[in-house]
Amino acid sequence: MTHVSFGYIDTNVDVIPAVEFGVLAEKIGFDILWLPDHFVDVDGEKLEPWIILSAVATRTRKIKLASSVTDTQRTHPARTAHAVACLDALSRGRTILAIGAGEAMNIIPFGLPWESPKDRVLRLEEAIRVIRLLWSSSRADPKSFDGRFYKLNRAYLSQSPTQKPCPPIYVGVFASPRALEVVGRLGDGWHSWINTPQTLGSVGQSLRSRQKHQNDLHA
């Protein structure tokens, strides 16, 4: 039987209520607390997710803690990997990283380069690979990576996540075929945002086809 999880998005509230609502979400019975990772949005407060999720982690025991979604332009993947590993240890293995290719409103006004869709998807793919490499790294087993956007030269993190082999990564994309390929090849889940039953079914079928193709290639 398929297990269905229910999540609560903690948004458009100030700092203290955000923590309290996260604690309340566990008491009510929600499975996942999602917190937006934005500088700005169309309305409401946008909080620093890892700080709020860390505060919630110290006051909860079961609810999973997730970003919604972190992008690759504002933070180097090593910094993201470190933050998630630390939260995963603090929460005793309850962290999910949702990551995407970014939104213009969080990039352009702050003087960061807004790349082509092709480059942003490639950067996303490289970032996921780098994050997973660093989660598996150690002083005795440093990692190297030679990509277009990111380089590692015998790098390692001194903080490891609690979940093994690593925390799940949900890839946040809409319906771009190129981005959906990244979900199918590298994602543990798809952060779909808003869909109708029709679009969800259509994109879900596309994801299953891409995942099957990937599995066939490695069979």
- Count of separate DSSP helical elements: 6
| Terminal residue distance | 26 Å
How many strands in all?
9
Give the C-level CATH assignment: Alpha Beta
Q: What class would the helix/strand composition place it in?
A: alpha/beta
Q: What order do the helices and strands follow?
A: EHEHEEHEHEEEHEH
Rg estimate, integer Å: 17 Å
Low-pLDDT regions: none
Number of domain units: 1
Label this structure with key terms.
single chain; 219 residues; alpha/beta; seven-stranded parallel sheet; two-stranded antiparallel sheet; 6 helices; 9 strands; globular
Q: How would you characterize the overall build of this protein?
A:
Strand 2 (32-35), helix 2 and strand 3 form a beta-alpha-beta unit. This protein has 219 residues and is an alpha/beta fold. It has helices spanning 15-28, 49-57, 77-90, 117-135, 177-186, 197-217; strands spanning 7-9, 32-35, 64-67, 70-71, 95-100, 143-146, 151-155, 169-172, 189-191. Helix 4 (117-135) runs parallel beside helix 5. Strands 1, 2, 3, 4, 5, 8 and 9 form a seven-stranded parallel β-sheet that branches. It is globular. The chain contains six helices and nine strands; from the N terminus they run βαβαββαβαβββαβα. The protein has a single domain (7-217), classed as TIM Barrel (Alpha-Beta Barrel), CATH 3.20.20.
